[in-house]
Every structure is written in C-alpha cells, then in structure tokens.
Amino acid sequence: MVSRVIPVDPFDLVIFGGTGDLARRKILPALYRRFCDEQMPREARIIGAARTEQSPQEYRDWVAEGLKEFAPRSAADPDAMAGFLDRVDYLPVDAKGEGGWSDLKSKMRANVVQAFYFSVAPALFGDLAERLHHYGIAHEGARIVVEKPFGRDLGTARSLNATLAEHFDESQIYRIDHYLGKETVQNLMAVRFGNVLFEPLWNAQYVDHVQITVAESVGVGGRGSYYDKSGAMRDMVQNHLMQLLCLTAMEPPSRFEPDAVRDEKLKVIRALQSPPLKDIVRGQYKAGDNPSYLDDVEEPDSRTESFIAMKLHIANWRWNGTPFYLRTGKRLKTRKSEIVVHFKEPPHSIFDEDAGSRPNILSIRLQPDEGIDLSVTIKEPGPGGMRLIDVPLDMSFADALGPEAADVPDAYERLIMDVIRGNQTLFMRGDEVEAAWAWTDPLIEAWTERGDRPVPYEPGSAGPEDSAILMHRDSRRWREVG
Ligand code: NAD
C-alpha cells in the first residue's frame, strides 16, 4: 500500500532554460505528475524563463506537446492538463543581459517558497545568480537547483561553488544527482539502518566484495561532441557511481538529516584510495548495427572512454580488505543499474564437499525494475542427500506492496518536491563534489599522461574482456549484465 500524498507549500518555481531539452523531457513532466497526484497546491506557479521571445500561451502549447510525449498516461486527462497549464507562465529572460529581469521581479510573490532551477549551461550559473541578487528577486529563503555537470575537474567545480557562494548560502543550493532520487537508493538506507539484520554484517568481516554497475545500452549518439570531452569517468563515476558507493559504504549517520548524511558520505570519499592504473579498465565500443564510438564523436583519434571498470579500496576499519568493483559503460548488453553485495561463505562447512556452498548475495536494483533481492542458501528439496542451492528472497516493490507501489514517483519528481520542502538530504553538498573531483582528477591525469588508449569492446557485450580479467585475477566474476 502506498501512503497518502502530502501537498507541499505554495511555491513559485522559475525554470531558467524552460524551453530546453531537460525541461521538456524531465522537469515539466515530473511537475505535471506531482500535480496529477495532488501534491502541488492550487497556489503553485511554474514560470518558464529562457531566451526565446514568445507569449505565455505559446509556451503553454509547447509544454502541452511535451507532456503528451513524456507523460503520456497523465496527459490523457484534459481537465488535469488544463489545471496544470493554468499554473504555467512564461517570460523571456536573458541570462547575460538585462532583458526580462524587472518583469521577473514583479511576477515573484513574497509569501511563497521561491525556487530557481538553473537548467542551462553551467557557464550561465554565475550570470543567473548575480542577476537574481542584483535585481533583488531572490528572497532569503530562496532555493537554487543546479544540474550536472558540476564542473569538469576540481578547479572548475571550485570556481562554480565560489560563484554560487557569492550570492547564495550552501543551505540554499540544491545540486541534483538524479540517482539519489531513486526509490531504491533510499531503500538502501532503509534496509541498512531500519533493520538489525544487515548492519552487523555490513563490513569487511562478512562482505567479500561489492559490485556497482550502471550499464547503458545506448551509445553517445547525438551527444557525441559533448560526451567526448567528458568520458565515463567524468560523466558517470565522479557523480552517480561515487554517490552509490558512498551510500553503500558510509557509517550510520546519527539522524536521517541532510548534513548528518552528507558528512558520512564525504568521509567515504576521503577514505577512498587512488587505485593503481592496472586496476582500471577503459574501453570504447566498436561498430555493430550502429556506428562505433569513434564514428559517433568528432575526434577520429579520441582516447575518451565509453566504458570504465575499476577496483577500489576504502581505507577505514569497516572496509579494510573488501574491494568495491565499479563499472559503467555505453552500448552494453542491456540497461541495468545495481549494487550487489557479495557476502563471504560460512567460515566452516559442516556439509560434504559435494553439497556445494554458495555465498549470500544482496542485490539492490535501481533500474529497470527497482527492487531488492537476497539469495539465501537452502537444501535442494527432495531425496539425494544434502545438496545446497540458493533461492532468491525477492522483494520487487510491485509484488510485495501491490501494483501502485511500482508507480512510485520518479527521481525528478521526488527531488523537485524535496527542493520545495527544503530538504537537502538527497542533494550533493559543495565539499562532496569537490572531494569527488579531487579523487578523480589525478587518475584522469595519469592515464592521459601515459597516453593510454581505451580498449575496443563489442557493442551489446558486458564491456572489454579486460574488465572480466580484472575480476578473474581476484577469482571473482561480474554479475551478468543482461
Ligand atoms: P538545451 O540546450 O536544450 O536548453 C538550454 C536552455 O537554456 C534553453 O531554454 C535556452 O533558451 C536557455 N538559454 C541559453 N542561453 C540563455 C541565455 N543567455 N539566457 C536565458 N536562457 C538561455 O539544454 P538542456 O539539454 O535542457 O540542458 C540544460 C542543462 O542541464 C545543461 O547544463 C545540461 O548539461 C544539463 N543536463 C541536461 C540533461 C538532459 O537530459 N538534457 C541531463 C542532465 C543535465
């Protein structure tokens, strides 16, 4: 059973970049679904702000088209659609000039929550922050939401943080990593800290190793020129995989509160050792039914990786000796994200050798079907003596909690509502982002300096052979991607 939705306080949400791809595909559909679920109060208002000169009605028509495409189920209800569009307004605003700012000021209400979503290139963050301040638009409690990429290295992240800090306090800044908005990610915390069952075992004494996989079946496609300047390390590991690693490895925070959680995550990043390059595998997908990575990007000799796998160690008491294996890549066999905790085998087997032995495995699936399952060893039923097999204790949300539970809000819905509620727990703090870059930069510099080339891999595979070898070296294997 899914609990009742609690409406948030009335708000004015300005989407800078309101005519962009992210607004159309994610932000507006997320808001619309929250509206349909009656979480958005009548007084809520969404103001698109971008360079395009158009009337509010033209913008609403464009929003409606987008909703039909990206929230088709909810968009089928004409009354809901009309009700939502009633709350949508538009204003042409130039982030780099003076046009539109005074009008924006006069539109903003003083007595409601104010949020400004910076859905524009990071180069414009400073211009927006400065003008919001200069025109006296943002009041003291105003919140700003910024998207990834948050810098491309430590230097750029620091300067972005410094720019925002000139006009906003850290408590007003919401850095989105949509992986943190996923239901299962929060469930990871519920499983770890809401049960006595797992936490006593959640350490190097009982955990053999952890695997974190974020596999994508798509290539870099139309984003080739952007992606090629970034690569899997910057685009995925520094943010999404690092966040999943932190939540898996962190110590219990004293409370489920923003700074308590973020302090613990930060400690994990600081304890993360820099792996030797031999523990990192980088790859580029070859051509198959689709073009190769090198054909997808402009640089014919690109050395940017579309796949990365690595073995990491966390230097603290809890995890000493337990490796964390991370991998992520494009054009892999399937789209799948999961965290898999492999427990150790019992210290002594009381059964005959031919009974076999199997370690317990807890897997936390983030996509496609969110859920958690635990493999438990039992006796194979029937005659034939004691033979051990493992069976899943599967907790797919839909099976366990009824069909509506599978219909949980998506990450953007939850995160945007958290912004309005003023809850920063699932957002990255500035020092976390900087610590993650401080760990990432030397590795990128090291392989760039050596002139390493990513190894080619077959599209539709689990990545390069070397990634499997990384595990074989330790007598381990990756879970199947597909
Ligand atoms: P986009 O190019 O589709 O849209 C950019 C928007 O910025 C447009 O609305 C445009 O009018 C506005 N804009 C540009 N210059 C402006 C100016 N001077 N003044 C006012 N408005 C201006 O980009 P996008 O794909 O929507 O991405 C926006 C941001 O979100 C980028 O930083 C991107 O890296 C990030 N992001 C996008 C996605 C995605 O799926 N599209 C995912 C994650 C992060």
**Count of domain modules:** 2
Q: How much strand content do the residues show?
A: 15-25%
CATH topology of the largest domain: Dihydrodipicolinate Reductase, domain 2
Total beta strands: 15
Annotation field: number of helices = 16
- CATH class category of the largest domain: Alpha Beta
Distance between the termini: 30 Å
**Structural class determined from secondary elements:** alpha/beta
The molecules bound to the chains, other than polymers, are: nicotinamide-adenine-dinucleotide
The radius of gyration is 24 Å
Biggest sheet layout: 9 strands, mixed
Tell me, briefly, the overall form. globular
Proper CATH architecture of the largest domain: 2-Layer Sandwich
Mean model confidence by pLDDT: 93
Unreliable stretches (pLDDT < 50, length at least 5) are none
Helix content: 25-40%
Strand order of the largest sheet: 14-13-12-11-7-10-9-8-15
**CATH H-level homologous superfamily name of the largest domain:** Dihydrodipicolinate Reductase, domain 2
Binding site for NADP(+): 17-24, 51, 148
Keywords: Carbohydrate metabolism, Glucose metabolism, NADP, Oxidoreductase
InterPro entries: G6P_DH (IPR001282), G6P_DH_AS (IPR019796), G6P_DH_C (IPR022675), G6P_DH_NAD-bd (IPR022674), NAD(P)-bd_dom_sf (IPR036291)
Catalytic activity: D-glucose 6-phosphate + NADP(+) = 6-phospho-D-glucono-1,5-lactone + NADPH + H(+)
